[in-house]
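Why do we care about 3D structure at all? Because function follows from shape, and shape follows, mostly, from sequence. That is the central idea of this module. The next example makes it concrete: a single protein chain, its amino acid sequence, and then its structure expressed as tokens.
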Amino acid sequence: MTSLAVVPRLLRVAVVLLRYRLDELVDAAHLFRPLKLVRPLLGRPAVDVRNLPRGARLRLALTALGPIFVKAGQVLSTRRDLVPGDIADELALLQDQVPPFPGGEARAIVERELKAPIGSLYAYFDETPLASASIAQVHAATLPDGHAVVVKVLRPGIDAQIARDVKLLQSLGALANRWHPNADKIRPLDVVAEVEKMLENELDLQREGASASLLRRNFASGVDLYVPEVYWDLTAQRVLTLERVHGISSDDVAAIDAAGIDRKALAAKGVRVFYEQVFRDNFFHADAHPGNIWVDATRPTEPRFIALDFGIMGSLPEADQYWLAQNFIALFERDYARIAKLHVDAGWMPSTVRLDELEAAVRTVCEPYFTRPLSQISLAELVVKLFQTARRFELTLQPQLILLQKTLLNIEGVGRMLDPEIDIWAVAHPVLKRILRERYSPLRTLREVRRRLPEWFHLAPQLPELVRDSLERIAQGEHRLLADVDTLSHQRHLMRRLLRMIACSAFGATLILCATLLWALAPQHGFWLPAGMGVAGVAAFAFGWWRRS
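And the structure:
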């Protein structure tokens, strides 16, 4: 049920939508249809919207509704698997800019959060903000040692405002979920949940500082990407102090040319940095639009990017990261059958999907692209269409994959703006293969095994009891364990798989334990015998846990 407290605000939303001639959205919530009768009394928007496309009208309406609706529109722009492309393109243009709050209030917040007079914290603090958005604004400052910094300060009362607006969005989402004819595809409540999570993260500036610190450590050389330093002694939940950096917005092509920077080299470097963030570090900037990605004008011969605003970062579960990398490789090599199998093996689709039908659908999407020159193929556009096609086969995507899709679109857009002829495939393919070779090499696997040996030693004495307990539960409660399985053949398959997992895990653990003891206590036998036993133990584990159809 919708709370009566939000009804007046819901009516205001409906009025704005009607002003911008978004009648279909009002029709979707039957409650607001009578308002169309009084449209002439509702006033007109600041611009004539009669001849504007629907995406532009929605963008203007969200801007008129306020900053939280702008945030919601920005999130919706990333869901190209759910909303039409023309609307997503327009929503991507939304700018989160609002009038600043007084600098005196910012000073008071800094002093309260850092528990000291501002004069003892900074040699200079400019009360006129450099930039102002719905969540926070940024002020220039100077440290006592002379270093220039920027201070990001949360807006006063923003927590309560966001809580109210989130309740309003939830009510709108519930209405859309009930009445909109395409609610099952748009999933409005899921979109609202994404907005809520994003806003929650942005309200903690200490979290943003930690993200900046990790990204800076991942690119410590600063050759390809520079990340400003975080001043932790001047950072708290509502205040973030960062090194001040200067650069050129990555979409200002004229200024980049004037600085004498090689745009082709810069575009290729941007693609490489993206794949390194995703597949080497598993930590990527998920809001990489031109306003947050600058170009260092001081390095014309060896260009690099400067990253800003670390409120939205992404990472993937290790399994998804592996499956996604393999999908990219298969896509580069046009192995459609492998793409279909990888989607099922990854668990993104039910195992009941017919692989031949999925392969045919993937081929139908991809083949028209490969008739073009490689430099004209949009990898981001192709991935979006693949996701849209896969949804027909009950594709389940995690929010992290949606963030990745959005980032891929942003990075490719920046790359093509810098170099319209860039061959994304030629740049990305070798980088991805190199990262995969390093990440999944035998040497790295051995290092990972050695790192986890203490954990296995701790669990080894418990393994016989765990095996015995599992077998007893199977013997005594088989009907409960398998109550939800539909067919007898599936029951037998699950039983065989469970027994194989238990037996192989016990055998593998024994081999690894013996190999470790032999290595530590009997070095006279050399390296190769315990190494062989350890590899055999790992192979036993892999065989036991390998998910076969």
